[in-house]
Amino acid sequence: xxxxxxxxxxxxxxxxxxxxxxxxxxxxxxxxxxxxxxxxxxxxxxxxxxxxxxxxxxxxxxxxxxxxxxxxxxxxxxxxxxxxxxxxxxxxxxxxxxxxxxxxxxxxxxxxxxxxxxxxxxxxxxxxxxxxxxxxxxxxxxxxxxxxxxxxxxxxxxxxxxxxxxxxxxxxxxxxxxxxxxxxxxxxxxxxxxxxxxxxxxxxxxxxxxxxxxxxxxxxxxxxxxxxxxxxxxxxxxxxxxxxxxxxxxxxxxxxxxxxxxxxxxxxxxxxxxxxxxxxxxxxxxxxxxxxxxxxxxxxxxxxxxxxxxxxxxxxxxxx
Amino acid sequence: xxxxxxxxxxxxxxxxxxxxxxxxxxxxxxxxxxxxxxxxxxxxxxxxxxxxxxxxxxxxxxxxxxxxxxxxxxxxxxxxxxxxxxxxxxxxxxxxxxxxxxxxxxxxxxxxxxxxxxxxxxxxxxxxxxxxxxxxxxxxxxxxxxxxxxxxxxxxxxxxxxxxxxxxxxxxxxxxxxxxxxxxxxxxxxxxxxxxxxxxxxxxxxxxxxxxxxxxxxxxxxxxxxxxxxxxxxxxxxxxxxxxxxxxxxxxxxxxxxxxxxxxxxxxxxxxxxxxxxxxxxxxxxxxxxxxxxxxxxxxxxxxxxxxxxxxxxxxxxxxxxxxxxxxxxxxxxxxxxxxxxxxxxxxxxxxxxxxxxxxxxxxxxxxxxxxxxxxxxxxxxxxxxxxxxxxxxxxxxxxxxxxxxxxxxxxxxxxxxxxxxxxxxxxxxxxxxxxxxxxxxxxxxxxxxxxxxxxxxxxxxxxxxxxxxxxxxxxxxxxxxxx
Lengths: 320, 484
Known about the structure:
The complex is a heterodimer.
Chain A: H1 8-13, H2 15-48, E1 51-52, E2 60-61, H3 65-72, H4 74-105, H5 111-123, H6 126-137, H7 142-149, H8 167-192, H9 196-204, H10 209-220, H11 222-237, H12 241-247, H13 256-266, H14 270-299, H15 308-319
Antiparallel strand pairs in A: 1-2
Helix pairs in contact in A: 3-14, 4-8, 4-11, 5-8, 6-12, 11-14, 13-14
Chain B: H1 2-20, H2 34-50, H3 56-59, E1 83-89, H4 95-109, E2 113-119, H5 123-133, E3 139-141, H6 151-154, E4 159-160, H7 161-167, E5 175-176, E6 179-180, E7 183-184, E8 187-189, E9 191-195, H8 196-201, H9 211-224, H10 238-241, H11 249-252, H12 257-260, H13 276-289, H14 302-311, E10 316-317, H15 322-329, E11 337-341, E12 345-346, E13 349-356, E14 359-362, H16 368-383, H17 387-391, E15 413-415, H18 427-435, H19 444-455, H20 460-478
Parallel strand pairs in B: 1-2, 1-3, 13-15
Antiparallel strand pairs in B: 3-14, 4-6, 5-6, 7-14, 8-13, 9-10, 9-11, 12-13
């Protein structure tokens, strides 16, 4: 109780302690969850990738053997080529989403209904979407009937899931259908933050809608576009639900994830599958870094409004 | 003190009784604590068995207070036992109707025991995870992912092999080192489901006995009727894996073929008399290559195919006998559905493999009361309930009544794989998984056969050669002795 010593109550009540207390109590739960469901399982997976093991039973340490096997099996890397379809699908999806978002940013009748309808597919579980499209593409079902309405003879309608030329496109289309609305909402959110006076000013200056999109909207939402590209490329490398549910990875539609699932669950080679997961993680990291570098080259840091080429041009003009 | 003395008295009484009870096992006192009873009856049973070949029952880890399944009498013993048990099943479709009905019937018999079913979707994977976590309940269908040497880690022993093998079918599938850990929920015979009317309409009078006769008959069906000769159900996946079940017993007539497989050099090679695994896959490959299957395997649909075979739009489906009842129930023509053996003849005789369904296993970590209640329920299910007639499967008891659908197998010998030799219980699984040929556990290799035939990319011989190579590589990496 002396002047120099603080009681526990005073110490506890002090601003500094209270501040740390609040910080730690609020941080504790999220950190615990993060640790429990992300970092510990991830660490376990790295550990598993060095073992020859099943789900149950004894494990033997095999060093780098699983990794060597991943690189020695041609079918594993062939499955990455299937992801190219999903990447191209990702670009189609971005273009569509940008198009619809731009339409929506200018006044449209029934805007919220339209928005909700576009966003709805994203809310359905991927498995359910798989089943919907399984029937959509099945012989004699929805898509065949629609195509037949346009007068195409039944024998000329391709087999959407069986023809190896188009079945991956069919599958990638389902993921375009699912994610376009979600991308659109993201873009729309970013576009909303653009000052609407700019459109007015631009149209006074004689800019049409395309000009407005190119010179006002696109530069303002560039960072979100870059983000979506990165997400859709890493997403296409790990595409799983459409091929797993609709074709079970048969007929040449097996993506990397489907292969990994087969090796882990049907052949019970958990170690090998964990190694595949780590390899995929590294591939995704490489892709992301490459994209970052690419956008950094084109746009400085991916967030600036002006491309490097444009900046150079401006500087050049300023000198003259 | 008083309690202790009472218990000691009871114990003594029970012991004396067990000494005199050598003649019969059914006179267990029905009072006092269940644990005491069970201990006593266990002593009784080991006394009894001591005279037989070994003292296995004495060693049997039938945990102190719990009797073995052959010694327990449903409807008589433990009528006062109070317990609440949970049973896991994969049958999400009938858990609330048929299975709940069985549970109700049992609970009428044992009013103090509560039986609760839990249906698990994606059974194999979900249950494997729950097993390792523990606390899953009392009874489950033992998932195939548990190897034999791990059975004792999760499940209690139900009795010793020599005793139970006399009573029940398929016990060797869940036996390790002389202890039985699961009793199969009935079994199925491997054959081919077909629509009798369509086959007759096509002008077929005699059932095919060889792969080539079968393919000719399918051709006749294609030429003479509107039906799809053979429906593969490709897109369901597991329906393709179903072809694997014929490559052992049905294709060779040899109950030891399964055990020999891991030691065989090039087991998938073509044999001159068209038997063995090659002959089975030949039927699949050729029927696809000759366009005797549905036009669009990739968009085939299992649920609607059941009605289609009933209506005669599909002539044939290659699936286990369990499917027959589903086909019968799927439409108005249940009598048109028939079941025939796989068309392979070995030295003038046809064989069909029969095997157990999922086996019932009882949680090793459950309390003694729950173990006994679980054992009562399992025994009631497999012996008293109408389950096997309902499902049209081979009954669990060896002297049980066969369902009518298997009558078509007249003159066909039903055989099951023999138990694996000691020390080789996991050998087949190990080679099978390591090679990724995935017999009976991975559907994809069978799908590849269909794809190759459909697109004409590879011949069957090329695929079989590849499987042989994978098989040899697995044998080599596991250091398995290979017979030339």
